[in-house]
Amino acid sequence: MSSKFWVELSNDYEKLFDTEIGYDVIIYSGEGPNIKEIHAHSNVLCIRSRYFRTAFSNKWAEKQDGKFILNKPNILPHLFKIILRFIYCGKIDLKNLQGPDVLKLLIAVDELNINPLISHIQEYLIKHQTEFLHQNPTGVLETVYQHESFTDLWNFYLKKICEEPKILFNSDKFIDLKASLLEILLKRDDLNMDEIKVWESLLKWCFAQQNVDNDPKNWNKDEIAKIKRLLHRFIPFIRFYDIEPTDFFYKVYNYKDVLPQDLIHDLLEFHVVPNVKPKTSITSSRRFNIKFKIDSTLVQSIHIPLFASWIDKKDSLHFNNKNISYNFKLLYRSNRDGFDAATFHKKCNNKGATIWVAKIQGSTQLIGGYNPLDWNGMGRKTTPDSFLFNFMDGKNISTGKLGYVKDPNNAISCYNSQGPQMGYLYSNGNSEWTNEDYNAILYPDIGIPTSKFVVDNYEVFQVIKK
C-alpha cells in the first residue's frame, strides 16, 4: 500500500525556499538600484531546469566561498522570485501582475527553460490580459514573434490584430513596426480592413521609414527610387482590384511612379474598359472574419458573400465581405416542410428572386441555382441572370463551380407538379431529381450529376435586396 502526501511535500519545499536554510546559490537579479540578492539551492534548481544544470556545470559556474554566483540583470527580482517559488513547490499566482510584467515573466521562463510555465503563462495572457496589447501593439507583437515557443500567444495576437486592425494600424507606434511583421499582416486574408485603408497604411509606413513628404509631387528622383524599393516587397499583398475606382484614381494612381507599370496598366484597363476581369495571377480578396446569419442546415455564413458576388456577376475571388447587398430568408426546407411540389409552390411563389440549395444523397455535394424572377405561373420564363452552381464539398467553398445561363429564353420553368426547374434540371416533386443530358445546351456543365439522382434535403431562400 502506498500513500501520497504531495501537498505536505510542496509546503515543505516552499518553507525551504522561504527560510533559505543551507542555500548554496546567490542570484543577483535586476540591475542598477533595483538589484536584489536572492538565495537558492543548486540541487533543487538543477533537478527542475536544464538551464540551471548547465549554469552550475564546471564550464560555466562561478563560485565564491563555496557558493554559486549567478548574475541575471535582465530578470526583475520580483519575477525571479515567482519563478523560483514555482521551481520549489509548483505554485504560481499571476493575478497581481499587470500584462507587461506577465509577458516579461514569460520571456524569463523561456530563457530559464521552465517548460510547464511557458504554456500556462500564455494561456493566462490570452484569457485575462489582452488589454495591454492596445498600449504597445508593435512592441508586444515583435517580442512574441522573436520567441519560437510562444506559438499560442503569437497566433492569438495575430488573429486579434486581424479582427481589430485599429489596435495596431491606428497606433502612433505603427510606423515603428518591423518590415517582416508588416509583411506577415498584409499577407493575411482575414485582415479586417478595406483595401484602400490597407494601402494608405502601407504608404504611411513607407513615408515614415524614408522621412519623405506624403505628396508625390514634392519628391525628387532619389526619393522616388527609395519609396519604390521599399514598396516592392509589399506590392503582391495589396488587393488593388478591390479598391473602388474613385479611390484608385485619387489614392493609388497618384503614386504610379513608384508602382510597377504593368500593374498600373492592368488596373487602368480593369477600371476603364467594360467587362474586363482581373488578371488571374492576382491575390484573392481578403475574407474578413464576419459572420452572416442564415437559417440553413446546408450552407454556412461563408457561402453568403459568394452567392452575393454571383448574383451581382462579380468575380468570385473579389467579393466585398463588408458590404453584402442581400439578405437570404429561408422560405422552404424539404425535410421540414415535405418534398411535395404543392408545398414548395405555396411557400415560394410570389416571393420574387430566390436561391435554392440541394444536398445529393450519400455525398457532401451541394448543388443549387438562382432564379431572379419567381416561381409563379406555368411554362418557361426568360432571364439572362440565372445561374447554377455546384460544390463538390459543400463545406469547402473553393470547390464551387458556377454556370450562368447560356439560353436566356429557356432559363426557368414553372410547373405545379414540380419543384424548382432550371433548364432541364428539375425536382420531380419529391426527393428524386433529374438533370437531362441536353441541359448542357442551356447551362454550362459544372459537374452536376446527369440523369436521375436523389437529394437528402433542399432549401429555398428569398433573396432580398438591402
TrEMBL record:
Residue ranges occupied by any TLDc domain in the UniProt entry: 297-464
Highest taxon, organism lineage: Eukaryota
Ranges where the BTB domain occurs: 23-96
Family matches, as InterPro entries: BTB-POZ/Galectin-3-binding, BTB/POZ_dom, SKP1/BTB/POZ_sf, TLDc_dom
PANTHER family listed in its UniProt record: BTB DOMAIN-CONTAINING PROTEIN-RELATED (PTHR24410:SF23), HL07962P-RELATED (PTHR24410)
Protein's name according to its UniProt entry: BTB domain-containing protein
Protein's organism: Rhizophagus clarus
